[in-house]
Amino acid sequence: MILLSADDLDFSTARPVISAAQKFVIPVAAFADAVPLLYPAGTEKAGQPITDWGGQPVGDKGIIFFNEIDRCYQAAPADGRSVIIINEVTAGQVQALREFIARLEEPIEHLCKRSLESLLAYAGREFGLVDLYNSTDDFVRAKMIPMDAAGGTTARPSGWMRRDDRDICHTVFVKGPARFHGPAATPQEIPPCGAFVVQQGASYRMVAAAVLLRTYMNLDASPLDLSEFL
To answer: For the chain, what are the domain ranges?
Structure first.
C-alpha cells in the first residue's frame, strides 16, 4: 500500500476550515512506571524508538495507545508536558469522565499510568470514544479554549475544550487506500473511500472523512460538502 507524506500532497488549493469539535484533554503526568517509547510488536519498526514526522524520537518513556479510527499507534512522553486528547466528547460524556476520575481519587493532572489507561479504556468501552491522539500543553494553551467553567482550574490544561475559532487550518481530500506518515507513532490508514489531511501550522494529520465533515466547518460556519472536494 502506498505511503504518503505531506510532501506528496498539493496544498496550493487547500480549503481553509475551522474545527468545531469538542474534546477532552488529559494531561500525561511524569509517572515513574512509564514504558520505553518503542514501536510495538507487529509493526514495521518493532523495537525501535518511536519517532515524529521529522524522524526525531518522541521521547524516552511514556505511554503508548491505539487510535481505532485511524488504525494507528500513538505515543505520549511522560515528561509532564504532554497530553492525550479525546475527540468528539459531549457534555454528558464529560460529566461521566469526570465522575470516573473522581473515583480514581487522583487529580487529573497527576493520574498514574494505570489510572490513565483505565480512563482511556472506560471512555472507549462506555462511549465508543476511540478517536484519541497525543499533543502537548503548549499546543492546547495556544490553540484551544475551555468549554465550561471547570477549564483552567488546574495548573496544566485539561478537561472539556475546543479549538479556538481564530485558528484556521487547511485541508485536502486524499483518495485511498493508502497510509499517511503524520504525527502518529505508526502511519494513519486511509480507507478506500478516502480521507482528509489537515494542515495545522507546520504539522499535518489525517482525519477520517466522516469525522472531518462532522467536526470541521467553513470559515463562515457553514457545513462542509464532500462533493466539493471530489
So the answer is: 3-20+165-228, 22-163
